[in-house]
Give the backbone structure.
Amino acid sequence: QVQLVESGGGLVQAGGSLRLSCAASGRTFNNIVMGWFRQAPGKEREFVAAITWNGHSITYLDSLKGRFTISRDNNENTVYLQMNSLKPEDTAVYYCAGRSGSTGPFEYWGQGTQVTVSS
């Protein structure tokens, strides 16, 4: 089992930046593919970004490329999501997730952190 705890959410003005963190515990973090998802009010949860255990493969929701950056520190068992040039439509609950396989569904989920972008 992997336990995930997000932090770093909050209220920010449009054009601002936030960095989300996700601390993992419970088993070997190094072998876990980590990702970020978000869910806006009234909408389905959507994929934001994912990173393999060694950081060599990174994927993003196409519309977020260039503004969001995912990274990880395996020594600190932490994954990050740097969000720049934030827009009101980025307002959502952001979830950290992990999976043990290279493909397939994400098995482990955090409780989520709220990001609110004001116009």
In short: The chain has a mean pLDDT of 94.
